[in-house]
Amino acid sequence: MPHSSHKQDLDQISELWRLGRTPIKIGVLKNMLRAYPHAVEEIPGTSTRGRVGSRKQPRRVQRFDIESETNRLINCSLAPNTIQAYQRALNALAKFRDSFDLDHSFPIPLNHITQFIAYMSCLDMAPSTVKCYISAISFYNKINNYEDMSQLFVVRKMIDGMARSKLKRPDSQEVSVWIVGSSLIRNAFVHARSRTGGVNLGLHRIGVKIWWQGYGGMGIKDLESTIKRLMKYEKAPKYLVLHIAGNDLGKTKLGFLRNEIKTTLEKVQSYLPNSSIVWSQILPRTNWRHSISQDSMMACRIRINSAIASFVLKNGGHYIKYPDILPNSTFLKEDGVHLTDLGNDIFLNNLQGALEMFICSGSYTYPDTFGTSMCIS
User: Which UniProt keywords apply (predicted)?
Assistant: First the structure.
């Protein structure tokens, strides 16, 4: 089309734009713009001062740009060292699969993960490195919306087993442990007597001697007097494990209970200045003593556990969690409070693993969950 005709059309468009009030035939305008693909970039723009300026069309965003920006944003959320470490983990997994003729399928099957852990153990890799590698797999699964097999019970237990197999007995001196709490502790003691390892949970090999003190219906108000009484019969322990306050939830306002627990723990610590306090997480229930609202009580349980664990850890203590004990009939008896045989087994396993880790490695929380961050490959 001749240049003069092009210029004439642009002049018409500019005039319509400037006048503003003039009715515009949209169909005609679209046809004019379609004839000149770049004309839209030359349409004058207006400002509040009435000055005519040039309005540039934004750059067209392609599919590649979106994919690239997605990866960039995820990578920016991670430290460079983390990205490098997790990429090494995925490379190691690929090398392992090649070595044993395993397919490179995704999501990563559970048997590939467990075999990969065993493979790294055979190579005598450090437990911390193995945790990092499993973290990489976990994040890769989550970021790609795959089912995450790396967080299953058997995987966590293999990681714990690696860590514990590397532990060394610190010395031959006896390590005294008191476990004090409600009827849950009394029942756990009875259950431990029939298990391999007995009431010392198999920890006699590292010099541990456990004194179980469980009292039905025990609440936080009973703790101070109980500790004073126990001090009359035994020397102060190295570790004081407290499983308490489940019977207090819902009885008073949450803030009051939180402060009452903290104040009581401070008093107990003053009586036993050389003992390390271990907060044993309040377990879930389906039947609470002071409330019928299951959701409200579970929320209170989480908040109290979080607040007291933070307080205890800040003051040099320790924290034991029980992520595998859930509020259902598999783990709880019909009363919705006390543990079944399976529940007691898991409870005792966590106590055993926690005490061994605290004594031999100096860690403060058990189980020590691994992180979940990585980049898209």
Answer: DNA-binding
Rounded CA-CA distance 242/279 in Å is: 5
The pTM of this model reads 0.60
Question: In terms of Cα–Cα distance, which of 325, 234, 314 is closest to 277?
Answer: 314
Single-letter amino acid, residue 135:
S
**From CA 328, how far away is CA 284, in angstroms rounded?**
9
**Calpha distance 226→205 (Å, rounded):** 29
Under a CB-based contact definition with an 8 Å cutoff, are residues 177 and 201 in contact? Answer: no
Tokens of 283: 């377990």
What is the DSSP track for 308-322? HHHHHHHTT-EEE--
- Nearest CA to 224 out of 255, 179, 267, 283 is that of 267
Q: For residue 181, list its beta bridge partners.
A: 214, 243
Alpha carbon distance 222, 366 (integer Å):
26
3-state secondary structure of 219: coil
Domains located in the chain, CATH noted: 3-54 (no CATH), 69-164 (1.10.150.130), 171-366 (3.40.50.1110)
State the average pLDDT for the chain.
Answer: 84
Q: What percent of the chain has pLDDT over 90?
A: 50
Pairing relation of β-strands 44-45 and 53-54? Answer: antiparallel
93, 116 contact by CB (below 8 A): yes
What distance in Å separates the CA atoms of residue 24 and residue 13, rounded to the nearest whole number? 10
Q: Please give the DSSP secondary-structure letter assigned to residue 122.
A: H
- Residue with structure tokens 């007597």? 193
Q: Is the peptide bond before 367 cis (omega within 30 degrees of 0)?
A: yes
- Residue 56: which pLDDT band, with cuts at 50, 70 and 90? low
- Going 35 to 36 to 37 to 41, the CA torsion angle's sign is negative
- How large is the C-alpha radius of gyration of the chain? 32
CA distances from 171 to 87, 189, 239, 301 (A): 39, 26, 16, 38
